[in-house]
Hints:
The chain is an alpha+beta fold. The protein folds into two domains: about 190 residues, 2-Layer Sandwich (Beta Polymerase, domain 2); about 170 residues, Orthogonal Bundle (cca-adding enzyme, domain 2). The protein contains 23 helices and 13 strands. The strands form three sheets. A nine-stranded mixed sheet has the order 1-2-11-10-3-4-7-6-5, sandwiched between helices. Strands 8-9 form a two-stranded antiparallel ribbon. β1 and β2 form a beta hairpin. The longest helix is centred in the middle third of the chain and has 18 residues. The N terminus and C terminus are likely disordered. The site of magnesium ion has 5 residues, from loops. Magnesium ion binds next to loops.
Amino acid sequence: MFSVFKRKGPQHVGVHKVVISQEYHGIDHRNLSDGSLKVIEVLQNAGYEAYLVGGGIRDLLLRKHPKDFDVATSAKPMEVQKLFKRSRLIGRRFQIVHVRIGAEIIEVTTFRGSTSNNKLRRTNASGMLVRDNVFGSVEDDAVRRDFTMNALYYDPSNHEVLDFVGGYDDLEDGIVRIIGDPETRYREDPVRMLRAIRFTGKLGLSLEDGTSEPIRRLNLLLRDVSASRLFDEILKLLQAGYGRITFSHLLRHSLLKPLFPNTFDLLESSDNTYYRELIDLALSSTDDRLAQGKSVTPAFLYAALHWPQVHHRWRELTTEGHGRTQALAIASSETLDLNQQFIAIPKRFCTTIREIWDLQVKLEKRHGRRPDSTLEHPRFRAGFDFLLLRERSGEIMAGLGEWWAHYQVSDEFQRREMVASLKEEFEEAPKRRSRRKNKRRD
Ligand code: ATP
Ligand code: MG
């Protein structure tokens, strides 16, 4: 798959360390960011070890366009700060220095090591790392990283790649392999399970057996991860251009259950296929938009990911006698409230998600001037697109979407005609509601 690796000829140094020279790895210096090269130069001139590491190097070896470059160094955070005026110490669990070079922000981490000193490195009852600020050598740092392909160090001064964990070979074989004992490493940080899935989806690699096997067993450990960190991770997973394939990997590895338990149950239990179809369509449309350089919003994605629960509850409540508008409002609030404990969606997105859902009933109402005010709704476009997904998924019959597509491009005269010729088939059922009210009074 990666023809560049065919010319490999790593030079083995000592027992574990492998040095791969430029003529073999073929990384083009011009593809490295100026800011990160500058940071490394300053650190090395001050007598510290410093390398480019992580996703940037991995992506260059895969001949992909890197998102960013991280720097790893022997300099302690305070020493890094002394060398760069425009720098800031961030993080408590893992201290990192952000160095600003021009418009770039370079993340500089100090080599991490291992210790039994639990003031510096602490795990909780389930083995999760809650603090990790022990410093060590570059070899120590390599084994503390997550996957072998993410632990390759590039030294810009001699263009060599250093590999302590077999990452270069794994990358050549297209394999994602966790470093060390898989179960221990997943317990230390359950998000590594999501990262494993993310890299297989995004880079088209496969999970090594030992790396994939414990995931199914340990999936519920994700419940211990903070709901706000999971929000960020989900966006990296599903809103980074490879959402549809990544979602299928999540399902296959039993990782949907801890993240979206209600959606998971409905996908599992219902014999209809339209919930899965709707989510797949939403993910594909997000992937397509990203590929075309268009904007995307987490609100649309989450509106789809939680829709099975909303829709299911909406139906239940209308069967119980609530009007469609009220039932949808209750189902929406319940769904958002219940799921915040798993994945914390920021408030501003919740508002938009609710609006997209609200529009599903507003779009049904087409008498009088209603369609004109719906058309003015600030989220009309998103609500309309969502309706089209529901139709395409087979959840509702096609027709309403086409009506709205036509209405949008019609003139005033045509619009009046469209409204007049409508049978009000999607109206609320006031009779049922009043019967219920009477019942309650009894
Ligand atoms: P991306 O291209 O998505 O940025 P990345 O591998 O660079 O992928 P980052 O989150 O930027 O991911 O992390 C940078 C590096 O830090 C990783 O390559 C890996 O070496 C290390 N790392 C990140 N998260 C973890 C983790 N949870 N456990 C261990 N090492 C990690
Ligand atoms: Mg990165």
